[in-house]
Design goal:
The chain has five helices and no strands. It has 183 residues and is mostly helical. It is globular.
């Protein structure tokens, strides 16, 4: 998995692609929290849950279903009955939450991601896995952690920064072409 400091790169980059009236600072903070939430499954180790179990690390909490549930619940709490805003906030929070599993599937270690859980516990990786896997637990900055951080800077933070910079322009172009129907 990427480090806990890298998962928030995705929502911090993509929020600028969404209408600013819907993606408030509170929604961005929620997206940052959602991007790291799937790793709550590491608490299962303390309860004897094995890595490859349904509730194990990179299992149910890294799935599409979990991302849909978390995004839906959080969007409802943040927007209530405002349908147009709900859809936009839901889309942002889904991408923020689901990005966790996507980044983990791009690492070079672990058992893979149970994207289709709870329907199957089969674990998946992407064919291209350039991100150095981060060790589970707290570690000091040794040689291994320097390699992990360097990998994350190259493969996650640099593209996220580029997206952060171009997202407003892309959003404006999309709005012009779509006739400002909104998301």
């Amino acid at each position: 998995m990427p480090t806990i400091f890298t998962h928030p790169a995705v929502p911090l980059a993509i929020f600028r692609a969404f209408p600013p009236e819907a993606i408030t600072p509170g929604v961005v903070v929620t997206g940052v929290l959602c991007s790291s939430l799937p790793d709550i499954d590491v608490l299962g180790f303390g309860f004897g849950i094995q890595y490859g179990d349904l509730l194990g690390h990179r299992g149910l909490t890294h799935s599409i279903a979990f991302s849909l549930f978390v995004a839906g619940a959080a969007a409802f709490l943040l927007t209530g009955q405002r349908r147009q805003t709900f859809r936009t906030v839901f889309a942002f929070l889904f991408l923020a939450t689901f990005s966790h599993g996507v980044l983990d599937a791009m690492t070079n270690g672990g058992l893979g991601i149970a994207f289709l859980s709870p329907f199957t516990n089969h674990r998946y990786f992407f064919p291209w896995r350039p991100i150095e896997v981060s060790p589970i637990g707290i570690r000091v900055f040794d040689r291994r952690m320097i390699e992990v951080v360097a990998s994350e800077l190259r493969w996650v933070w640099m593209p996220a920064c580029a997206l952060f910079l171009i997202a407003p322009t892309a959003r404006r172009m999309w709005v012009i072409r779509a006739g400002h129907r909104g998301l």
